[in-house]
Design a protein that fits this description.
The chain is an alpha/beta fold. The protein has one domain: L-arginine/glycine Amidinotransferase, Chain A. Helices cover 26% and strands 26% of the residues. It has nine helices and 20 strands. The strands form seven sheets. Strands 3-2-1-20 form a four-stranded mixed β-sheet. Strands 4-5-6 form a three-stranded mixed β-sheet. Strands 9-10-11 form a three-stranded mixed β-sheet, sandwiched between helices. The longest helix has 17 residues, at 37-53. The two termini are 30 Å apart.
Length: 359
């Protein structure tokens, strides 16, 4: 009989728990950054340099040999620690690793030498955010890479059906509580990931496959979000009991009411042990607009690696304020701003591009 990851004792760790590596897909699709594709490589270089200089392994997916040569050239010029870089050649469509790589889960088991940690990779279906039609290579990445990494792949299912989910659509505290949004996974009309699955079915699928016990539903995501409501632009755990929630001070801004409603929801929510959630407001940058379109610029799209927290910055007065707030919340890590004005033209920034593999 098929046992779910939860039934096998697996659960999803928090992002601040120790990593074996950070995964990235070297920029490939020029349509993701119209007119900005060349500078994007240097932003990626800065991300990899920061991760590797802290001693963490960067595992980079490249499309082919020429693509790898280009990546090596950039990384050498920016001073990345190449001893901490591994390349994997595998066909990609867009390579937003947060959303197309599996969710890693772990469990503790007894062995002859004592308690040991075991890991598995829960493979959700990636269907291009139920919006684009070029996703088949990205959806196949996990199964094609696993022979090289030794990942134990488990297909994410609910009953007899496969479940679609992206890593940017969820956030966990590592103790059983998961954050997500109704806009992303319960909207029956727009970018529908799992047709016919309602709230109860989606909650059960999350519990079965990620080993969580307590699911918190926020409402809508921020304006300009191409994914239709990813929580990683909105609200993030920074420790087991605390979240940051982006807030907009301008009552005429498109985000103002949405973020106020989410704040009110959070105030009435509880953690897996029944305690209230500590909530820290994180400012929003001024609107970033390209070709008349609002872009999803948010300081909540930070990435936690082993020694540092990488935070997107936008040449904005609130950059310093956001970095200061996060520095206080991560006293054991260096908080580093990464220029993301070009990056956000691709409709995502640091958290969207990266994916942690637990140690």
């Amino acid at each position: 009989m098929h046992q779910t990851p939860a039934q096998q004792g697996f659960s999803m760790p928090a992002e601040w728990e120790r990593h074996k590596a950070t995964w990235l897909g070297w920029p490939l699709n020029s349509e993701d950054w119209p007119g900005k594709f060349v500078p994007i490589r240097w932003v990626y270089g800065e991300i990899v340099r920061t991760i590797t200089r802290g001693g963490e392994l960067a595992r980079i997916v490249v499309d082919n040999e020429r693509h790898e040569e280009q990546a090596r050239l950039v990384l050498a010029k920016v001073g990345a620690d190449m001893d901490n870089v591994e390349f994997f050649q595998c066909r990609m469509n867009r390579g937003w690793m947060r959303d197309c790589l599996p969710a890693f889960v772990k469990r503790t088991v007894a062995s002859a030498s004592g308690l040991v940690s075991e890991h598995a990779a829960v493979k959700f279906t990636f269907n291009g955010w139920a919006k684009y039609d070029n996703w088949q290579f990205d959806n196949a990445l996990a199964n094609r890479i696993s022979p090289l990494t030794g990942w134990h792949i488990m297909e994410a299912t609910f009953g007899k059906r496969q479940v679609a989910l992206e890593g940017g659509g969820i956030d966990v505290n590592g103790l059983g509580t998961l954050l997500t949004t109704e806009e992303c996974y319960l909207d029956p009309h727009v970018q529908v990931r799992n047709p016919g699955m309602g709230k109860a079915e989606m909650e059960q699928a999350l519990k079965d496959n990620l080993g969580v016990s307590n699911i918190l539903w926020l409402g809508k995501g921020i304006a300009g979000d191409d994914t239709h409501g990813h929580v990683d632009d909105l609200c993030r755990f920074v420790n087991p009991t605390t979240v940051v929630l982006v807030q907009e001070d301008n009552p005429y801004d498109a985000n103002y009411r949405v973020l106020e409603e989410n704040r009110e929801r959070l105030e009435g929510m509880h953690l897996e042990n029944g305690s209230k959630i500590d909530m820290v407001p994180l400012p929003m940058p001024s609107p970033v607009v390209f070709d008349g379109m609002r872009l999803p610029a948010s300081y909540a799209n930070f990435y936690i690696c082993n020694h540092a927290v990488l935070v997107p910055t936008f040449n904005d007065a609130n950059d310093r304020k956001a970095l200061g707030i996060l520095s206080e919340l991560f006293p054991d890590r260096t908080v580093i701003g990464i220029h993301a004005v070009d990056l956000v033209w691709g409709l995502g920034t640091l958290h969207c591009l990266t994916h942690e593999e637990p140690a």
